[in-house]
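Fold this complex.
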Amino acid sequence: MSVRAGIIVTGTEVLSGIIRDANGPWLSEALRARGVVVTHIVVVGDRVEDLRSALDFLSDHDLVLTSGGLGPTADDLTADVVAEWAGAEMVHDAALEERIWAVVNRLRRRMPFEEEAMRAGARKQAFVPVGAAVLEPVGTAPGLLVSSSGPLVAVLPGPPRELQTMWEAAVSTSPLREVLESAGTLEQRILRFFPLPEPQIAATLRELDADALPLEITTCLRRGELEVATVFPPSSASAYAALEAGLRERHGDVLFSDDGATIDVVIARLLQGRTIATAESCTGGLMAGRLTDLAGSSAYVLGGLVVYSNEAKTALAGVPDALIAAHGAVSPEVATALSAGARSRLEADIGIGITGIAGPGGGSPEKPVGTVCISVSTATDAEERVVRLPGGRADVRDRTTTVTLHMLRALLLRA
Amino acid sequence: MSVRAGIIVTGTEVLSGIIRDANGPWLSEALRARGVVVTHIVVVGDRVEDLRSALDFLSDHDLVLTSGGLGPTADDLTADVVAEWAGAEMVHDAALEERIWAVVNRLRRRMPFEEEAMRAGARKQAFVPVGAAVLEPVGTAPGLLVSSSGPLVAVLPGPPRELQTMWEAAVSTSPLREVLESAGTLEQRILRFFPLPEPQIAATLRELDADALPLEITTCLRRGELEVATVFPPSSASAYAALEAGLRERHGDVLFSDDGATIDVVIARLLQGRTIATAESCTGGLMAGRLTDLAGSSAYVLGGLVVYSNEAKTALAGVPDALIAAHGAVSPEVATALSAGARSRLEADIGIGITGIAGPGGGSPEKPVGTVCISVSTATDAEERVVRLPGGRADVRDRTTTVTLHMLRALLLRA
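Structure:
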């Protein structure tokens, strides 16, 4: 008995691309983990009729989640529209207004504000549909669980941190708890490969007759890595095991993760007990930034050098002037010198050296935009490559960090 | 006569949150810039019936754009479903297959592959609906313009770079050109403020009776900055001018951009003719990475130091051991020393020093997680602050770079 859900993300700023939605994907994953089938994420602007038509579109579902539109401003109208759609009147909850006001008052210290304006905002946020379950505010906006003749509608706030915290409270609140309990359980497994082209995985899946299996298999190329995500009910566990065995047999050599770990997490595990430092030019700090994304990275990241100018390459990383003059700043020789420089300047076990042409300018016929020289080294070993990466400036910079992490993995596996 | 459009983003990997969609917002902005009203972005997985219901949902629109599902694998089924929905048969285009094959062959050098598997992929991608206009592949997937009894459906590939390049070709291709020409023109203006709380802008908009104006106004808090985006037809230009004047009168002191420029672009303009360097701890390279996001940044960014360990703070940035011992690594004194160290080590005009506690560990009652000490200095002037930023590790790191850029702006404006 599958439970079907749809997600409505509100906000003209999201619809128009001014900000990128994080809530739809997050809620979708949260629902999937609880065995709920999500069919659609619908993004709508702050227009009453478009929000209403989105609710109509999902009216044959068991559950609809909304995010956003609960703030103090006039364009925040989700609660009103959902209430009207469900046929419930809005009533003022005085005790709720006082709780919201207490939160707003705590924020007073951070921002300049006019008391009257803030009070009006809190009052607006304290109107709730008759009969709805109120989810306590995490920021200033309360959430709602609104029953209708069709789906249960869970109304959640827009700021991702508020939404995520409130979701944890919502799942144990009636009537959402009952709906979620009626869903079965779905397993999800993710295998990650690098490098592996999409047509190759397509051919492999045809060979394994994957279409005929009781599994939902998705392949996707993400930051240059190929990901095979499979969702299935517990009864299909043996079918999944056979699929995974077939994939391992054919592509085990490029399989780098079978437990959901990203390459970043794989690297963090391999780096335990060692130290690393960077010297980067075209990535301008993003490589060090990526290595320090994970909590606990201070155990192995000592630091890094961002050597954007040639002078900095020499002064900070000790790359000889003559080497740059002989080979150019973007050259394998300079990458090698940078990784050695990172090691010696920071007294690290492992050094990363990156120099390349991120574009859009600076390319030449011999070294077009996208050419990046990478060196990952220890005192006794090294992985070195010159790659040509596709895409624009941001793509080249981001993809460089992915390629470098995979080179680092190769080095660490044989160390 | 307004043209209404909807966008359908396909892909189980997008719906499930494995990858984050960039195409919906991008297409939405591209359409808005051409005066088209976008009502919804609908994200669907790779299920035939869900894609079909999304097309039904948008069937009263003038235009529907789809992204994704054009690849060589079996779960790529957008072209088939759209063709069936529009009542057009799929036919093989032999010449198109050869053009696709030529592209695939060029990719051969980058990736290992089996010829047979790749050939099968190219053949699949060369099936097109009868009567559809074919948009030449940018990667390997051709796009399509499919007429139906309802909307015109523009079928575009999933990789953002391919989609964006193909869109430029599509807009001058019949019949899409005709649909776009029938749309009017909408103007968009964006004002950005920092710092300004949302309830305050809400109160101001009520004061200015903004609801009654013939303008579509959206306010949104983005990376800590408040953005007021307004869309209007040319006939409402004077209403907009009055609104903008009212906002300037009340909040001109915190208005930092009125021409669509982000703080990053504002800073890039102000930095012309000067040089800058960074020394950062908790942001781990993200500050330097952000300063070098923009093309041309090599004119003013000399480089930076990522000083994650205390040893690196001393060895690279010249922060005295005794200073760290006396005040702690996260202290205004160390931030000051870091910005001075960045300046002197890289011989830059301006130095940035950042040290803080990004979390989740490392906090204390006096210095909780989110405490960040920032110093931006020249030889003769400085902006210095200790801030407490909300959110998780990634939020604290990202918000730190935003706050720092605004401090940098203040310093540059009086220099």
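Chain B touches chain A through 117 residues (CB under 8 Å).
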